Amino acid sequence: MVCGATSGAGKSTVAAALCRSWARQGLLTAPFKAQNMSNHAAVTADGGEVGRAQSMQARAAGVEIERRMNPILLKPSSDNVSHLVVLGDEVSTTDARDYGPRAKSLRPVVLQALSSLREQYDWVVAEGAGGAAEINLLDRDLVNLPLARAAGMAALLVVDIDRGGAFASAHGTIDLLPRSLGERIGGIVFNSFRGDPSLLVDGVAELERRCGVPVLGVLPYLAEETMLGVEDFLDIRTGVHSMARSAEPVRVAAIRLPRLANPSDLDPFAAEPDVELRWATRADELAAADLIVIPGSRATVADLGWLRLSGLAEALKRCDTPIIGICAGYQMLGQRIHDEVESDSGTVAGLGLLDVETRFEHPKVVRRCSFTAGGQRINGYQIRFGRITSRERPWFSPDSEFGECATGDRVVDTGLDFGSAAGCEGAVSPDGRIRASSVHGLFDADGFRSELLGAVAADRGRDYRPASARYHDVLEAHLERLADWLEAHVDAGVLLDLAATATPVGSEPGW
Fold first, then answer.
1. Catalytic residue check, 327
2. At what angle do helices 166-176 and 201-211 cross, to 10 degrees?
């Protein structure tokens, strides 16, 4: 298990690095996270929802993401309410107080998923969540050290040293835990260190003396690494992210919605050398943009209200900048949203920039899809309650072969789902300035993304040349660098020895 002293300690990154490190040693490895609280989701081949971080970790391990790798997913729609996804399927909503008894009933689901993965794979890297010593939640903790104890496995404690207080965080975590949980921690790793690690030697020795747990390594700060596929909302940094080789890069502003979902849609822009990506929260941050993207949200109506309160809605209506809406962003751009499912708000006016309407309905659409557009193959996925009626020209028309889903079924016209013609998807305003789609992952397609950015650059007088590397290769190189980073600063053999102490499947202590 890879657990953390705090949220944001680097658990997901270390877990992905470990998955790639073991995979390239020829070890059949699977990621696992018992319970994930995130609106950043991926879709399995059979139409299940799992956390985005586990999808990235599965990629690192070179295996297909599946439902068992994230059996419980909580998708927050407000400060107190989350949608509960169990083994890939949304089953209900729950609030913080009611979830305690529900969590206990889910223990067998979690342990069975983990045990079955252990039977199939050589190694499983189980990521924890939040801080490992949240003592107010230990009785309902499905994902951290109570699970490690139930499964009979050792844990690695990751501590963020960049923010200060790391020694106290490490010692305090172990000291606060009951002995039966604290003894699961077999090693400590400090993460995000800037400077000379020899300065830590005395402190490390004293920490080891006091808590009896060895420090297995100090990982340097990944200052120049563009982090892709981040899990936590807090990891989405505002401000400008640029690798620009040009003095006039294409400036993309993505709106950082309060309930932002699937920000990985924008990762390909962050990896483009001639694109300057900004996550925007204020109207003035849109002024210099050449392209504005309204991404997905897990609370469409609430985030639409935030757009109005923040002044961003008026800025979007006044500007002459190209706008792309993805999923919830698509829905917000329309005339009306009828929502008796997600927010129970009834009919709410949209931004009025596209002649479309959205009606939220069960069942939830969760599927992969692929299609061609302008000769470019695009593989994407959909996660939505919204069914859209469009009176606009479709972005992707029937001859684009939209709808080759994981099941092999062709998309058929429902009158609400894909617009006015079978196979159509998305919408384009009469002047072509505003485009929208329900499909996540559009920009992963290199040719499609390059054509889009090239057209924006030509229209806006910017200097853009397509990236020389495919986005697939950018992701792979990123994961290789993470594995190199881990192996250079933590003894991989020690980590394998620690993992090998796990109780054999079938002999786990249980809850």
1. yes
2. 10
8 Å CB contact between 176 and 135: yes
Distance, CA of 372 to CA of 324 (rounded, Å): 19
Query: Rounded to whole angstroms, how far apart are CA atoms 326 and 441?
Result: 9
Say whether 440 is catalytic.
yes
DSSP-derived secondary structure letter, 70: S
Residue 213 has which token pair?
């747990």
Strands (E) across 48-112 are located at 49-51, 72-76, 81-86, 89-95
Q: How far apart are CA 61 and CA 29, in angstroms?
A: 6
d(Cα 452, Cα 443) in Å, to the nearest integer?
9
Instruction: Please tell me the distance from the alpha carbon of residue 366 to that of residue 406, in angstroms, as a whole number.
Output: 10
Provide the residue type at 121 as one letter: Y
Q: What is the DSSP string of 324-393?
A: EEETHHHHHTSSEEEESSSS--EEEE---SSSEEEEEEEEEEEEEEEEEETTEEEEEEEEEEEEEEE-SB
Tens digits of residue pLDDT in 336-393: 999 999 888 999 999 999 999 999 999 999 999 988 777 778 899 999 999 999 999 9
> What letter does residue 426 receive in the DSSP assignment?
-
Alpha-helical (H) ranges within 276-323 are 300-310, 312-318
Residue showing tokens 């504005």: 292
C-alpha atoms less than 13 angstroms from C-alpha of 98 in its C-beta half-sphere: 9
Provide the 8-state DSSP code for 122. S
Q: Backbone dihedral region of 164: left (phi > 0), alpha (psi from -120 to 50 degrees) or beta?
A: left
What is the distance between the alpha carbons of residues 358 and 370, in angstroms, rounded to a whole number?
A: 23
Tell me the pTM: 0.90
Task: Read off the pLDDT of residues 471-511 as tens digits, 9 standing for 90 and up.
Answer: 999 999 999 999 999 999 999 889 999 999 999 999 999 99
Q: Which of 327, 369, 424, 478 is catalytic?
A: 327
* Tokens 């944001």, residue located: 8
Quote the pLDDT of residue 373: 74
**Left (φ > 0), alpha (ψ -120 to 50) or beta: where does 195 sit?**
left
pLDDT tens digits, one per residue of 410-443: 232 323 333 334 567 899 999 999 999 999 999 9
What pLDDT score was predicted for residue 242? Answer: 53
User: Distance from CA of residue 134 to its chain's centroid?
Assistant: 23
Give the C-alpha distances (Å, rounded to integers) separating 388 from 83, 360, 361.
22, 9, 10
The two beta strands, 155-160 and 2-4, are parallel
Residue 403: pLDDT band (50, 70, 90) is: very low
Q: How many CA atoms lie within 13 A of 132 on its CB side?
A: 37
Residue entry with tokens 């924006």 = 456
Which of 40, 241, 440, 478 is the catalytic position?
Answer: 440
Strand partners, 420: none
